[in-house]
């Protein structure tokens, strides 16, 4: 729907920025991948109950791709010979993925169709592939700090994806479907899959304060090696002109899942709360009710505010609730439901003779009474904080919330 | 691939801007639509050989949607009762569509999977739906003028989509698969489907200068009426609180097809040419070859240019070809292939004692020799032209290229 779509587009912009800083080039892979490619990599041999498969009019079979390792590797394999000089290649896309889940649930959290950012990297050697892994991981760390939702990064099993090194990013939430082991003494965290989930001893600090929490997996990184490039013949020409298998990595972020689970973690029963950079609008402005006795003078204030706000936070970040036929209370309720970071109300008190005040609702429950210039200052401060986050100046307090993890020993 | 992807993203941004100016709100509909919905509207009764169909693990059947009238109408039908006050609704998305073509060809021009912008509008009456039709059509006209590729707008048959009024936007090209009738006397144009293709008499000016040309359909608008809202029960509450069928329209633009066919129309055998607003980069900068005797002084010029160009056209619009191991000639050939609007070469003549000159290649074949300040002026002029186009100041010359059409008599 339009409101959430705005948030999705902001997240896409944020991810684009971070991927491009990590040397990523955006591409677009077909949704349909011939099953023949998956046969070559052996990935049709396991449990395929989650795959949507479709045949075209000629009988050729395709997967509605749940992931694109085969597609991108086959594409790279069929391009003109790649020279070592052209590497590393870091290709990514943002698009729909499909998984025929037995139990889809929690809306966007586990849907059969979902939006993913998937990056595939191609290097000359395991060593440079590890450099790439560090660089992309750093971009992930930066992104998740920019979102200001506490996250844990854990060592993970490589599973059906294969490869030698893997990390998961989790949001801790009771609705999470993964079990994480977290140490309250040193902050260490790991996926229960790769640890002994019966133990309470922390493998890092040896304290006995390891306990289970639930996590929502929002991102995953893999060092894949030659698992896909070998069977699909994706090679490059080395310094002596000889073809050699490309060394790959893949890096996913669940775009719609990040959004849904961030809202889940941040919100209360009373109020939706968004990561600062993902709120659909920064400011909601509610003017006087039609027919109220303050309508005319209050509208003058409203119009003045509209102009100033447009300049401060950008017109596209301003939601003007001009349904004047509704009471302020009714519109304020809608605004609370949508969880705007700042909601400004121009009511009767905005036009009183002595010390006129705007009502300002800050996401998180605070309600302030401010004069116009104070209100505008608050909006400007919000915009400044956003700009600062976008520039990568993430708060130290966020940094300390991140559990020290095996990943940091990379 | 990355270069074309940049162009696609620019086109998406341009389309977003124009749709939002026309009151559009962006949404995202699922790719899979239950076939049950299509049964209700009767659209599974015709030729379904172009549909990709898939069943999930429970046996439920879905279409990989070639279009989304059913999906969006069912969605609107199941939201809370919509009041006449909330209308019109103009919802659009940009996403992949699927058609199991018998003959896919010309790459992105007719592919089985392609990117579409599809808008669906909901109005209280046929009359207001016609207002919506005019407003969205105006947004389409503006967009196609911004692209600066000559187009014709013709009255069209409504076909499987149904409805009462329809127009197509075409690029004229020998690779086009539609036959248009165009009058060289008055500029009138129509689709041969709705005219008598044997006649040479123009139905507009009665001259006998009507002849056939080939067109690539790049966009299509339909006034749908109640064809979908009736069977799917999509209603609103009128002023007396009674439910009434919504009156719909739908409006498509083939995103990837616009790009492919614009390139087809504009390019020559020697050189790719992009619409100004869609070129992947505005400027390509080629510096001296490594080891050449002018390398050092020329690199000083190159660095100076890099800084200035970044400021003038934005760093993201600048492609710096720093493959210094390649000759200038080889890199210039690549630049020509990619068809950058401006390519600047810093070679030996850039550092000669007397009247140093940069070589500047303008898309379309012109090669200029300019000093730095002249070159920068040209880049600034290009950026100014782009800004002007983005602001909707389309050239009058483009306007006159548009055939007068039945559509203009709306």
UniProtKB/TrEMBL annotation, chains A, B:
Q: In this protein, which residues make up the domain named Aminoacyl-transfer RNA synthetases class-II family profile?
A: 20-275
Note the CDD domains from the entry: ProRS_anticodon_short, ProRS_core_prok
E.C. numbers: 6.1.1.15
Q: Reaction catalysed?
A: tRNA(Pro) + L-proline + ATP = L-prolyl-tRNA(Pro) + AMP + diphosphate
Q: Which Pfam families match?
A: HGTP_anticodon, tRNA-synt_2b
Q: Would you tell me the Gene Ontology cellular component terms? A: mitochondrion
Q: Which UniProt keywords apply?
A: Aminoacyl-tRNA synthetase, ATP-binding, Ligase, Nucleotide-binding, Protein biosynthesis, Transferase
Protein name listed in UniProt: Probable proline--tRNA ligase, mitochondrial
């Amino acid at each position: 729907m339009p409101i959430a779509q705005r948030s999705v587009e902001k997240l896409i912009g944020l991810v684009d920025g971070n991927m491009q800083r990590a040397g990523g080039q955006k591409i677009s892979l077909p949704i349909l991948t011939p099953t023949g490619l998956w046969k070559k990599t052996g990935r049709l041999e396991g449990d395929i109950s989650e795959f949507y498969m479709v045949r075209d009019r000629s009988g050729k079979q395709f997967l509605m791709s749940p992931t694109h390792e085969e597609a991108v590797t086959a594409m790279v394999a069929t391009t003109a010979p790649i020279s070592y000089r052209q590497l590393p290649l870091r290709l990514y896309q943002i698009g729909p993925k499909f998984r025929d889940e037995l139990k889809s649930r929690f809306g966007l959290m586990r849907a059969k169709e979902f939006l993913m950012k998937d990056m595939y990297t191609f290097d000359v050697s395991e060593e440079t592939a590890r450099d790439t892994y560090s660089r992309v991981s750093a971009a992930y760390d930066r992104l998740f700090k920019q979102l200001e939702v506490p996250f844990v990064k854990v060592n993970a099993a490589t599973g059906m994806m294969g490869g030698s090194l893997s990390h998961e990013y989790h949001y801790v939430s009771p609705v999470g479907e993964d079990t994480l082991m977290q140490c309250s003494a040193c902050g260490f965290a790991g996926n229960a899959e790769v640890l002994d989930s019966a133990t309470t001893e922390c493998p890092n600090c040896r304290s006995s304060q390891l306990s289970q929490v639930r996590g929502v997996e929002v991102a995953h990184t893999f060092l894949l090696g030659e698992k896909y490039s070998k069977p699909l013949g994706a090679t490059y020409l080395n310094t002596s002109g000889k073809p050699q298998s490309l060394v790959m990595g893949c890096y996913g972020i669940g775009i719609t899942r990040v959004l849904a689970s961030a809202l889940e973690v941040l919100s209360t029963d009373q109020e939706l709360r968004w990561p600062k950079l993902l709120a659909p609008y920064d400011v909601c402005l509610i003017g006087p009710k039609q027919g109220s006795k303050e309508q005319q003078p209050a509208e003058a204030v409203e119009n003045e505010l509209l102009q100033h706000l447009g300049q401060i936070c950008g017109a596209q970040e301003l939601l003007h609730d001009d349904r004047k036929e509704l009471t302020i209370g009714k519109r304020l309720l809608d605004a609370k439901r949508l969880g705007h970071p700042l909601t400004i109300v121009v009511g009767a008190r905005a036009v009183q003779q002595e010390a006129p005040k705007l009502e300002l609702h800050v996401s998180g429950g605070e309600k302030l009474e401010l004069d116009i210039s104070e209100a505008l200052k608050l909006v400007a401060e919000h915009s400044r904080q956003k700009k600062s986050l976008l520039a990568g100046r993430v708060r130290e307090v966020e940094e300390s919330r991140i559990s020290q993890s095996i990943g940091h020993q990379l």
